[in-house]
Amino acid sequence: MAQFFVLIYDYAFVKKPNVKLNIIPDPDGVYETRMESGNLGDIVIWGNDSDEYMQAVQKGMLFDWNEDEILSDYGPYIEEHMPYALEKNTNLSGGTTYGYGFDVAVDPSARGDIMYTWDLRWDLYKELGYPAIKNLDDMVEVLAQMKEICPKDDNGKTTYGVSLFNDWDGDMVMFVKSTATAYYGYDEFGFGLYDSEEQKYYPCLEKDGPYLTCLKFYNDLYQRGLLDPDSQTQKYDGMVEDYQNGSAFLNVFNFLGSAMYNSDSHAADGKAMYPCPPEEATPIAYGLNVYGGNRIWSIGAKTEYPELCMAILNWLSTPEGRMTAEYGPKDVCWYYDENGKTCFTDLGRAAKLDIKTEMSDGYSGTFEDGNFKMNNQTWALDTENLDSNGDTYNYKKWDSFITEPNSEIEADWRDYTKARTPDEYMGQRPYKLAPGTTYSAGTKSDELLVLWNQVADCIKTNSWKAIYASTDEEFDKIVDEMISKANEYGYDECIAFQENEVKLRAAAEDAVK
After folding, report:
1. Is the Cβ–Cβ distance between 181 and 116 less than 8 Å?
2. Looking at CB atoms within 10 Å, which of 88, 131, 196, 388 has the fewest?
3. Cα(144)–Cα(411) distance, rounded to whole angstroms?
């Protein structure tokens, strides 16, 4: 699915594109309407590189990056530094270059930061005496104990173990499949999860499989009063507010847990979220990929300003563009010191740790108001920043940031885990590595797409019903009905397609071993 269509209003530029962007999301029907109109917009960002992207390629809806040497003239940084990502797109698109995938890496042997960190309210965990958390059941018990000692959040509202949202649901409920990824180390793969180490596939409706096991985890939380009852209806912003205010104690993602909660003000009060995964968890780690991922940056064929579109993408693909997208303006929020090492300004550090920080130095509003709104990245966060002296784009690994503990609660976590940073700790634990490859998902037939969408709606709708089941018996009944209905819609045909994709992905993995 195309994530956003970006239309350019102001088109004067010199070294940096001086533009205003109108970002159009892709709710139901927008893609189809724009395909029928024959105009996808100026810059088009794709959520994956399979069905809808390939439709656009086949119907001539995207701009050829080699036409009139536009890549060489207006995208020189991309051409020089991302050759493998461009080659992958060329091969995928039948010999023509229409863009490149996200999260490009410099070094194929490196791994990315582990984002499935199981961030937990460490101050409450400490207060409970650091109880053992061996598995998902133990996590439920610890969250229940936390609610007993902390029944209200910063604003006096009821606390819960977790707070969810449904904006990012795809083929399955996002938080359920992501928890399976965080616990078992299996990657989302169609209607199921894939283990790169064993090259084995687990369909999502497999009884006692990873998806249904994690679905029961969230139902257990609901039955214990530990799941925010607004989880299905609130949107992303509502969830963010919950974690900023301490309304929920656990999130499997670092960018939705500690990144939201760990402000200087909370640290001053002795509060923080830090990794505390169950002992049996083996989260996934993604190998960095010089070929780029499956979310594609492209340009619409009908744009009036192809040169400007390419110049914008080129700037976003430079280290300064990537840093600005992540941290704000250079010299206002960050800078390189005399040794070429990356550093925050005081404003930049405050803004990254608390997105509600008010901007200054010629900027108004909060950091959140002005932060990057396009749901895509150019360079991988954990790859080397070629303008720096050996730093990555990930501030958590900058020497200037990894100093002495910034608070007593951070010092306690460091002392307990014997690690300086969350990623250092997660890297010391068992994890499963999914290597970066050239694999791209196969294209589904129109007939299969109809079945696929019906099955996806069935799984998502009934998964949420199962999460809100009042008893185990009701949960089992809903799951059985979900399996029955999914089979009626053509689930088996979808799984057969995906089993063939397993062979293709495994072959791509074997090629880089």
Report:
1. yes
2. 131
3. 25
SS3 labels along 140-175: HHHHHHHHHHCCECCCCCECECECCCCCCCCCCCHH
* Half-sphere exposure for 78 (CA within 13 Å, toward CB): 33
Q: Do β-strands 432-434 and 192-195 pair in parallel, antiparallel, or remain unpaired?
A: unpaired
Give percent helix, percent strand, percent coil of the chain, each to the nearest 5.
Answer: 40, 15, 40
Distance CA 449, CA 398 (A): 45
CA atoms within 13 A on the CB side of 482: 25
CA dihedral 310, 383, 275, 465 (to 10 degrees): 40
pLDDT tens, 235-271?
Answer: 999 999 999 999 999 999 999 999 999 998 999 999 9
CA dist., res. 296 & res. 102, Å (int): 6
Q: What's residue 17's pLDDT?
A: 60
**What is residue 16's predicted lDDT score, i.e. its pLDDT?**
59
Residue 180 CB partners (closer than 8 Å, separation 6+): 186, 193, 210, 211, 213, 214
Decide if pLDDT at 7 tops 50: no
Structural tokens at position 424: 């250092």
Instruction: Give tens-digit pLDDT for 343-356.
Output: 999 999 999 988 88
H helix or E strand, kind and range, residue 99: strand 99-101
**What pTM does this model have?**
0.79
